[in-house]
Design goal:
With about 110 residues, this protein is mostly helical. The chain is built from 5 helices and 2 strands. It has helices at about 1-15, 30-40, 45-50, 55-60, 70-85; strands at about 85-90, 95-100.
Length: about 110
């Protein structure tokens, strides 16, 4: 009941709650990001344009060997751009990427 009341007050005042991307993130490390981009045949500039982030952001994200240290919303934008290009993220015990079955490399150019 209290939560509903608080949400009503927040919406009434026109305040916006920041979305929580943490649960949606499948892109976890720089190697995974690089592998996805290379599978699509994209350069860093094309990925940056598709994700609407700067090239420097892509370079910095790809430089991490482990977990990418970035704003969650920015990382989510890059993930969505790769998924729209045809990448599927694998996050079992070993993170990885693969092309979706319905996408061929020529389709992504």
């Amino acid at each position: 009941m209290i939560i509903k009341y608080l949400l009503f007050i927040i919406s009434f005042l026109g305040l916006r709650m920041r979305p929580c991307y943490g649960a949606l993130l499948k892109l976890t490390n720089g190697r995974q990001l690089r592998a996805g981009r290379v599978l699509l045949g994209w350069d860093q500039a094309k990925l940056a344009k598709a994700a609407r982030v700067s090239i420097g952001t892509i370079r910095r994200m790809e430089s991490f060997d482990g977990t990418i240290n970035s704003q969650t919303g920015t990382l989510y934008k890059v993930q969505v751009a790769l998924e729209r290009g045809g990448i599927e993220f694998l996050n079992d015990d070993r993170p990885g990427v693969r092309l979706r079955a319905s996408v061929t490399r020529q389709d992504t150019r």
